[in-house]
């Protein structure tokens, strides 16, 4: 097998990447297991991506919807669908029962060959968030870019502090410009792969190369941990950064709202 074909085989091996995605999101308030047929997570935060259903396998769809609505009542939430992770007919069954497809997110993956080299913008330092105060800084960055407000920072901080690492090794990082936290990102290691999550940059500090430098730091950490493949889901803007770092589209999630 050539190096190129091995790379293709690794980045297109979806099950570990899908399991990594479930492991990360179940950290947002859930007693469900990564192998659950109907894993549901609830952060309680007012953002649809932070509450939801991750897949439905071998379950009656009406029962699944009933359980999801009961578990997620009072929140904004989404239902994730990928045909390699859920029963093939789930998307159509959701639509038949009044669900609205609100979008898709690409699943991207990269084969790590070494530490990426991305210049660190002047005055910026990147540090792992290891203390309660550093986690509060981490949690102060992503609410507004994710459609929440600064009033949600205390609740977001509480959720970050409550994550117990039951399914993953999660390493959270903050990029600082002087004493100001300006960008954040998390590396979640499980199921033999590393996932990048919760990348966000404060609006006034975008387009300075900070996010790219932070993503490169996460990739360097994954390399240090001996992980061969990194996976993520991306926004259109984020996808351009990740493509420059060697990521390729390997699949997608369809997102539904009920």
CATH class of the largest domain: Alpha Beta
Largest sheet: 10 strands, mixed
**Do you know the CATH architecture of the largest domain?**
3-Layer(aba) Sandwich
- DSSP helix fraction: 25-40%
Strand content: 25-35%
Low-confidence stretches: none
The total tally of domains equals: 2
Instruction: Give the number of DSSP strands.
Output: 10
* Overall pLDDT level: 93
Task: Characterise the protein shown here.
The chain is α+β, with helices and mostly antiparallel strands. The protein folds into two domains: 3-106, no CATH class; 111-251, Aminopeptidase (3-Layer(aba) Sandwich). Helices cover 33% and strands 28% of the residues. The chain has helices at 3-11, 14-25, 61-72, 90-96, 132-141, 153-162, 210-224, 236-244, and strands at 40-42, 51-53, 78-81, 100-111, 124-128, 169-177, 180-190, 193-201, 229-233, 248-257. The longest helix has 15 residues, at 210-224. The N and C termini lie far apart (46 Å).
Q: Main attributes?
A:
globular, 258 residues, alpha+beta
Task: Give me a quick take on this structure.
This protein is of the alpha+beta class and 258 residues long.
Secondary-structure blueprint:
Layout: H1 3-11, H2 14-25, E1 40-42, E2 51-53, H3 61-72, E3 78-81, H4 90-96, E4 100-111, E5 124-128, H5 132-141, H6 153-162, E6 169-177, E7 180-190, E8 193-201, H7 210-224, E9 229-233, H8 236-244, E10 248-257
Parallel strand pairs: 2-3, 8-9
Antiparallel strand pairs: 1-2, 3-10, 4-9, 4-10, 5-6, 6-7, 7-8
Helix pairs in contact: 5-6
